[in-house]
Amino acid sequence: MLLNKHIILYSIFFCFQATFAEAQQQLRGTIIDEATLEPLAFATIYLNTTSIGTTSDNEGSFNFQVPEGEHEVIVQFVGYKTLSFTVNSKEIAPQYKIKLQKETQELASVKINGERDKEWYENLKIFKSNFIGTSENALACKILNEKSLVIDYDPQKAALKVIAKEPLQILNSNLGYILHYSLVEFNYELRQGKLFFAGYPYFKENKLSGRKLKKVEKNRRRAYHGSLVHFIKSLLNNSLQKEGFRVMNLYRVPNPERPSDSIISAIRKEVLFGNLNKRKKDSLRTNVLEKRGLPKNLNMLDTTALSANELIVRKEDKIYMRASNLLQIVYQNEKEELNYLTHSRTKKPGLQTSILNIVSGEEELNLAGDITNPSNVFLEGYLAWEKIGDLLPLDYVPPPN
């Protein structure tokens, strides 16, 4: 599953005054070294997964507008730990003093220069396809500082682990952004197909004009439509059907045709080591062992479309998406990309179909179209296939048709 953020909170000190300004939406303050209290010039501060942010001046001061709602603020400076905290536009303090801690000696000593062997480049390909993706937009991306990656492959566990000493700079020419991505964690277990990565994306416009700009705008609209953010915003606006989404309950039940793993294991030992005649062994192979390739579970779909009111729960001033079952999400206005066919092993594109699983049964939603706790939500299908190469900032608003 693709996750686009992970919360890490280190050290922050708030300078509050006695009262808050009622409609304060300006985020102001200074960024300093926690130990020396010296200002940190040119530190980056931004709202997570947006294009909204700035850099501190020579005095470590910063000042930028914060849209209405609750936001995760990310503060970064080379050689220091990334810091995150949450602000609400209705409760922003008049002034913030943010203290950054220096990176640990262990990470600071990691070398990012020097030659890379053939194995490193092979692992880099695996990382790119599972982090940036294999869509048209993803294939147009280029990591400008890929040698900042520290790649570790464990052949015994068939596990790939990647860290980066500095934010990755990813040029996405199709979507017209230079994405600054602070990679917190990347773990990929190749045998099980389990993927987890997390980090802090910050989008900067790649200045374009004329035909290039029009093409980028077209690509952005296409990337937005059918995306997870588009789905969440449609859910919040009670416009699922209007926006082209069909959501249905999906029940996953054990496959009655497939024996359990314990039975398969026991029969396998009996066939290999038991004192059985050929006829009995052949029977066990046919009736048990050959069925281990069958899927463990079967999907049963309730084709009744769910409305937003059946999926949304409001508690005080917070909004939650609730589902006791798996949800199948079909975006009916676009077909799958041709590149997806290799992943799905199908012969021709169908409608973009995904499965969403809320582990705890409910998940808080942000008005910007974000999920508060992404580790609580698992995706399968098309939305899981789309990765960083198709990511747009949360503040992106598609132009009217």
UniProtKB/TrEMBL annotation:
Database matches in InterPro entries: CarboxyPept-like_regulatory
The organism's place on the tree of life at top rank: Bacteria
Keywords tagged on the record: Signal
Gene3D superfamilies (alphabetical): Carboxypeptidase-like, regulatory domain
Signal sequence coordinates: 1-23
Pfam families hit by this protein: CarbopepD_reg_2 (PF13715)
Name of the protein in its database record: Carboxypeptidase-like regulatory domain-containing protein
Organism: Marivirga lumbricoides
